[in-house]
Amino acid sequence: MNDVQRRVVVVTGAGTGIGRATARGFSADGAQVLAVGRRSAPLADTATGHPLIAPLAVDVTAADAPRRVVDAALDRYGRLDVLVNNAGIAGAGPLAELDEAATHAQFATNLLAPARLAHAALGALTVSCGVIVNVTTAVGQRAWPGASMYAAGKAALDSLTRSWAVELAPRGIRVVAVAPGAIDTPIGEHQGLSPQQRAALRRWQLDRTPLGRVGTPEEVAWAIRRLCEPAAGFLTGVVLPVDGGAVIG
């Protein structure tokens, strides 16, 4: 097997959407994948028909989650090469209606959990000269009125990507990010939005997407996998928009 096929990959938020597509994509490339998520049933669906995917039901915000995830990868495979911090929750609401509990939950999942998991994985990633991939959002790079706290948390993850890239370069670890735009995932349903609210959000997104369509989870997963290839070994600190031109439109 070549280096790509020998890799061990951890993907969080792997039960649906971008995380599921990423786990399956790496598996199709021949990598061993630990698919992490809160719910067992969606993870089992992710792994069905993909024998190289092993599900692990863990809430990434739990105090013991980072050690459980890293230990599971090392116990099962003996190494860790790629960490994909994909798990995330979205929230909306203007500043005038700030919900502190919801904001804390978003930051715990979208910002603190990736930092804690990356910290726990540093030893293993140093041994493998591995890659950390943070999944952020294209709207973190521009104004998103009505969802400012979500955008701010993801923008902070962009900043961590750049800082970690410089900090961890001496260890041989690369750190990159992808910033999806409007992607066909169930995040709106998970957010509790009504069908009418989801339709309005989609119209708002499409109005700001020059290519005029919604992207697929597989298109984001393709970008994640390409950034992790040995051929991308001189790329670090980059935040790659996968957004149909939304950032520049």
From TrEMBL:
It comes from the Bacteria. It holds the Pfam family adh_short_C2. Residues 7-186 form the Ketoreductase domain. SUPFAM superfamilies: NAD(P)-binding Rossmann-fold domains. CDD domains: SDR_c. This is SDR family oxidoreductase. The lineage of its organism: Bacteria, Bacillati, Actinomycetota, Actinomycetes, Micromonosporales.
